[in-house]
Design a protein that fits this description.
Elements lengths: L3 E4 L6 E4 L9 H14 L1 E4 L6 H11 E3 L15 E4 L2 E2 L2 E2 L22 E8 L2 E2 L2 E2 L3 E5 H6 L3 H7 L3 E5 H10 L9 H6 L1 E5 L1 E3 L6 E3 L6 E4 L4 H15 L5 E4 L6 E5 L3 E5 L10 E10 L1
Parallel strand pairs: 2-3
Antiparallel strand pairs: 1-2, 3-18, 4-20, 5-20, 6-7, 8-18, 8-20, 9-10, 11-17, 11-19, 12-13, 12-16, 14-15
Length: 284
């Protein structure tokens, strides 16, 4: 059966139908999936009940996976990050504050990831409504909508991305972020261009976020603050946003260069949310 690509109607996002993610996927179909992904920046597969092996196998068709130590919680497999509000034996089983602010995954890493794949194992529901949606914003659309003068102003500028900035902002909003060790704190920051060029598409992407961008380098501090405020407000306008309403067993894949995302925290225990995420370090 041929696959079908159904655009969301927003600036980004599309559903891919007709693919058995747990089975063998031929090269031609993988090419179609990749092309749809690069075009729409966020793609999703509905009602795909995947085993751990299925999730990892499909992720590896996209590229090399990030494994090993990470600041958030992990499952029994090093390829997974657990995103969850569930508490067992008095301890959170996963990253309970993931997505509290607009951000792109791994901007603070020495080598930022290229894509993330999140599988919904449990989705909170109340009174027949699904809660815990995720908003995605297109950074290519946001960049293209900038004025010519703003594009010229930010061309060549660099910004510092820091996990400490994220945690400080989270605390100001009354949240308690995941605790970090001192060595981990020192390593979780990196300098990136304000305008990144996507390695696969060649398109320019605005690359600043309220979550991780602490300052723009090479300009006065007050100018940096004002410019960041303007850019981060610009890039998350509704015209650039697709909101994904999760269903159990959805698999959503997003581009970590050309998108940002933010979770909707409209639920709390005893309503449970459990998701497993793989992270692609580089495309194959």
């Amino acid at each position: 059966m041929p696959i079908t690509i159904v655009p969301s109607g927003a600036a980004l996002g599309a559903e891919i139908r007709g693919v058995d993610l747990a089975g063998e996927i031929d090269p031609a179909t993988m090419h179609e999936i990749r092309q749809a992904f690069f075009q729409h920046e966020v793609v999703y597969f509905r009602n795909r009940e995947l085993s751990d092996d299925d999730h990892i196998r499909f992720s590896e068709r996209i590229g090399e996976l990030r494994t090993g130590k990470h600041r958030t919680f992990r499952l029994h497999r090093p390829e997974f990050i657990v995103v969850s509000n569930i508490v067992e034996n008095g301890q959170h089983i996963g990253s309970y504050d993931a997505g509290i602010l607009w951000h792109t995954d791994g901007a603070h890493f020495a080598q930022p990831p290229v894509a993330s794949l999140l599988h919904a194992v449990e989705v909170p529901e109340k009174d027949g409504r699904t809660l815990g949606a995720t908003r995605f914003a297109s950074m290519t659309a946001a960049y293209e909508a900038l004025s010519s003068s703003m594009k010229k102003r930010i061309e060549g500028l660099e910004a510092l991305h820091s996990v400490l900035h994220r945690d400080n902002k989270s605390k100001l909003e009354g949240n308690k972020p995941v605790e970090l060790g001192e060595e981990e704190k020192k390593n979780l920051q990196a300098v990136r261009p304000v305008v990144r060029i996507h390695t696969a598409t060649g398109r320019k992407c605005l690359y600043v976020s309220e979550g991780y961008t602490s300052k723009i380098l090479g300009i006065p501090e007050d100018e940096s603050k004002d410019l960041l405020t303007e850019l981060t407000a610009h890039c998350t306008q509704l015209r650039f946003v697709y909101t994904h309403s999760w269903r159990t067993h959805d698999l959503v894949m997003w581009d970590d260069c050309s998108t940002q995302h933010k979770a909707t925290f409209d639920y709390a225990l005893p309503l449970r949310r459990l998701m497993y995420r793989t992270t692609v370090s580089r495309y194959s």
